Queue: 3 jobs
Job 1
Amino acid sequence: RNSHRHPKLNTDGNGASYSQHMFGKAIDIGIDDIDQDGDTTQTDKMIVYEMLQDIVSNKGGLGLYPGTMNLHFDCRGFRARWDWP
């Protein structure tokens, strides 16, 4: 859904002032029917979130974007989490 953002685009889109997107260190992904049960639900989102927890560990950021089927992850070099489940 979203990867590198020019600082102006980041500002116009209400992005965080030090968004990892501006440094090419972040990506937002849309979640689909991961468990293939015929529905795209928060369960699908949490499956991907848990996988990303293992991948980024304490060296990156994870964000849930509540009310959407999108997830953020980045490689900022330290642990950051927001909008916890």
Job 2
Amino acid sequence: MATITRIFDILEELSGEHQHIPDVLACKMDGKWIQFSARDYVLNANRVSRALIALGIKKGDKVATVISNSPQWNF
């Protein structure tokens, strides 16, 4: 296991040997448990980062998120 010192180091760790973990995050939607695998986590986090870049967000810019407690908050 690599040393994790920054929050985005988690993505690198999940992309490696842990990419097949089936339930890194889970939530209940419409009464059913929905699981997100390590691969789902990385793919969704990368989608969010690309969307922010497409919106013109740059290093040093401040971004606030307002969202209820859910796996999507982590992405």
Job 3
Amino acid sequence: MARGARRRPAGKKDKREGILSAAIRLFARYGYHGVSLETIAKRAGVAKGSIYSYFDSKRHLFLTVCRRTMDRLEAHLMVLSEEGRDIREGVREGMRTFFSFCESNRHLVELIIQERSLVKRHPQVTVLKKHYTPLLVEALKEGIEAGRIRPLDPETAASVLFCATFGALFAHLEHGVDLGGMAEAIADVFLHGIMVKETDK
């Protein structure tokens, strides 16, 4: 910056983004209860009172961080919404993308899971189940009608896949289970099952 030039004051949007950026890093590292608004304000370089100009409380700030994380994940998973995508390709790519995102954002994902008492009623945080279950159910129905998938209950099948997915995620967070391998294994078992067909014996 040239001598004598004045630094332009940060705009409201820039200041809000700075607060969110600081909150994301601190919540991910120390957890919801391990971070105070004073600490977030200090990291963001603003007065504590400035936070209340954008967020009603620490809970409001945390939920906004969760929404932003889910929005980023949803953007990564838009591949599942492509019209005409084969269900086998969609399931495999969706599993890989979801687990890759969780590995890259491990601490924040773990934080959201740990603090589910705060986020369980928030519609944005449940975007995966609410948005992608109907897509998967519809794809399963189309496959059944086309004769590519055996007759089954699409809603139950979708629930099974999501339970397996989040079970693998918990195992990764708690025991270090390899998500890359689990993505392929879950997709394979879901799509093909484990029993040998009678005609293959």
